[in-house]
Amino acid sequence: MKKIIITFIGFFVFGVQAWAVDRIVADGGQGGAFASISEAINAAVSGDRIIIYPKTNGGSYSENLTISSKSLQLLSATEGEMWKLHGTITFTAGVAGQELVIHQANLLNGSIQTSAAAPTGTRSRVVVTGCQLDNGNISFNFNNWDLNIAGNTLLQGGIYFRFGKVVGNTVIVAACAHGIVCSAGESGSDDFVYIVGNRVIMDTASGCWPYDWTGIYYNSNSHFAYVTNNFIHVRSLYQIALRLESSKTSSVKANKIENNSILQEGGAYNSTFRVVAHGSPTDLYNNSIVATVSAYGFYSDQMSINDRWGYNYTNIAAGSNAYINVLNDGTNLFNQSITMNSTTGDVTAGAPVNGGSPDNAYLDLDLTRNDADCFGGSYSRANFTQNPTGAVTTFLIAPRRVLSGGTISITAEGYDR
Hints:
11-stranded parallel β-sheet, mainly beta
């Protein structure tokens, strides 16, 4: 695992974590390897790697894994092939700053989770990349955890956390549940929580009550929200695509809710995109909603002068339903003919194409004007559509605009086995 922080001031600074011993796991303990993952974990010390050979004929390791007070990596021995687990992975940090890395795991029936807050001090980290959970959650909804959840597929589950980055995942949400949730509880900071480039598909179950099951639900007053370039597909009654419930109260920076695509095919008159109470400025630019049923579009509970709405689009015909309590500067359009790909969220025809903010800070990857959908801007979903294998950078934070003579600060997170 490498965490690289680069500041262009005439030199580079690289942070590298060196790992200790490789503990090999193979079916039946072949060649003197451990026969179970639990045996390898029990023998390991902090810093070791657990290298797991996938079982032949698609077999799985049937065990619940408990990792306590150790920094470990759980990796597939065969690049590009997942090791299968029938069970749950539970991680508890014993001291501040411990780390768990899980790469190319297929959990057939179980979650990756914790049951407690991490110790105060340096946050304990959890990195999950290139994994598939067939029926389970990634759940670290406790304080002092820093998550990097990138390039995973959850077939019937959700991601629950308080701080970190959730980027480039496909989340097919379980019935009557939320998809990606950032919750309150942490001590505050001026950091962003990043939810970027994800594909969230809501369940088709009807009759779930109450009516606020949400694809992406941000409800934290501890940090600023950075929710961009996600595709959210709503498919039933009582579902909301994206909801900003609360955020940090500060004027230090603005929340970013930008370049999201929403396809509303669920029950009638859902509030598709909802902004509730929050105490800091919020930029809501370049988002598109396509509804195939009667629906409410962009809905604000407070009509805050701190909210900056611009270059949003929807096919909802009635302006009174398309933008509710929104301070419209004239660039937010309704009753538009929009063609949106129901699998990717890409808008292929209509006003959102080259219709986002003309500010150069929002230029697309090909340096044309921003497309007001999840493929628009520098965090285009195109960056996140490949599963991470080998050495990969999972996320890059860089300024959109650099003033002459200024300092460029670039932070990258990635994985290299």
